[in-house]
User: What shape does this take?
Amino acid sequence: MNTRNAITASDPVRHDDLRDLATKPGPVVSLVLPTHRGGVETLADSQRLRPLLEEARKELAERYPDADVDSLLGPVQSLAESRRFWQEQADGLAIYAYPGGSRHFRTDRDFVPTVTVGDHPNLRPILPLFTEDQEFLLLAVGRDKVRIFEGDRATITELPLGSIPASDEDAEGVNTREPEITRQYSQTSAAHGQGPRDYNVLNGFLQQVSKGFEARFTNDRRPLILATLEEYRGALAEHITTVRVLDEIVPGSPSDLSPAQLHK
Assistant: This one.
């Protein structure tokens, strides 16, 4: 089962979100207000929403007398009463309520409290937050652990390895257990270059990882970020030819890094 990790408390605003909202039938209630990421202020944030709701009710009654106000604003009222919801906020909140549903976005930008009621949503406050779907793949390779992730600006999800070896000991046809004489020699060697035999073991392992990744993600349009030691970069990138490998890497051994640390 893939584990999706939320990296920020904010929600990305994507093209599909804007297009979907723009097609919603009216009347649409658009509300924005500032929020807080923690502390006692989070309790006050829910109170700031209540007068905005009352203002929306009045405008709906005046401009759309046939609208089912309780049904339209019901989802927003539920948010106002949810203690947990207000404990998981960012710097601002945008809420859109329309017949049959609602959407909300926690944002990294605060707002002046505002209510707009009309035939279409007021998307202007969230347009500066619009971001393309900047999805990516991340291949984290250490000799003792290999992981694959997919992510975007706000999330990162670990994927199953499939046929890709999970470590150098899992690489097919690569024997990582050296005779005693070789281990004695390696103790006097450099940290990452432990003699001809170890060099061949390492390169066989890296080759299997990169070829396995290439076979699985052939022609995937998402860019690939490598998280590995600098000296492993060339061997990994050599056999990944149909996926764009970014020049910048997450340097150092990634084995002990959490998904959130890798995402940074």
In short: The first strand starts at residue 3 and ends at 6. The chain has a mean pLDDT of 85. Residues 36 and 57 are 25 Å apart (CA to CA). The radius of gyration is 26 Å.
